[in-house]
Amino acid sequence: MGMPLRIDEAIRIIFALLPVLLFLGALRLMDSYKLVSGRKVGATLAAGAAAAVICFVLNRAIFLQFPEYQDQYARFGAPVAEELAKGAFWIFLIATARVAFLVDSAICGFGVGAGFALIENIFYLQALEDRGIGIWLLRGFGTAVMHGGVAAIGALVSVYLSESRKWRGPPQFAPGLALAILLHSLFNQGVLSPVGSMAITVAALPLVFLVVFYMSERSLRRWLGGKLDQDIDMIAMIASGQFKQTPQGAYLMSLNDSFPPEVRGDMLTLLHLTLEISARAKGDLMLRETGLKVPPNPALESQFRELRYLERSIGPTGMLAVRPLLSQTPRDLWEMRHLRQ
Question: Which residue from 101, 112, 141, 312 lies 20 to 30 Å from 270 (Cα-Cα)?
Answer without folding.
Answer: 101
